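Hi all, posting the design record for the shared folder.

TITLE: backbone redesign
STEP: 1 of 1
STRUCTURE INPUT:
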């Protein structure tokens, strides 16, 4: 996949993460794990979304600007892997929110994921 498409995909996943986070938090299905972003979300949806989009935009610009550097390519690959993982978390949250999986499964999944990151 060309680097431009990867950079655009990263921005799109960042935006989707922001929208889904707002939806899950506002409907009581989840909490924001990042304390700084949780504070912005407590202030309102627009400040949260604006900062999230700004972070995604700056990241995309930096990665695109230095696209010929090996570090930028590796950084982009790692960032995409992280956001794809986050989309998995959103997917499981959605399954739980709509009653397709039990709360016990979600708690076990969260504990396993937490151990993996620790």
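Okay, here is what came back for every position:
SEQUENCE:
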């Amino acid at each position: 996949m060309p680097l431009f498409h990867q950079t655009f995909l990263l921005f799109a996943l960042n935006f989707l993460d922001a929208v889904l986070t707002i939806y899950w938090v506002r409907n009581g299905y989840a909490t924001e794990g990042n304390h700084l972003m949780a504070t912005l979300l407590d202030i309102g949806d627009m400040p949260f979304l604006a900062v999230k989009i700004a972070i995604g935009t700056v990241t995309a610009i930096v990665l695109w600007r230095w696209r010929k550097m090996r570090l930028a390519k590796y950084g982009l690959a790692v960032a995409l892997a992280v956001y794809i993982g986050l989309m998995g978390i959103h997917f499981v949250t959605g399954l739980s929110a709509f009653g397709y999986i039990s709360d016990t499964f979600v708690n076990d999944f969260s504990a396993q994921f937490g151990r993996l990151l620790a």
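COMMENT: The first helix runs from residue 3 to 26.
Let me know if anyone wants the other runs.
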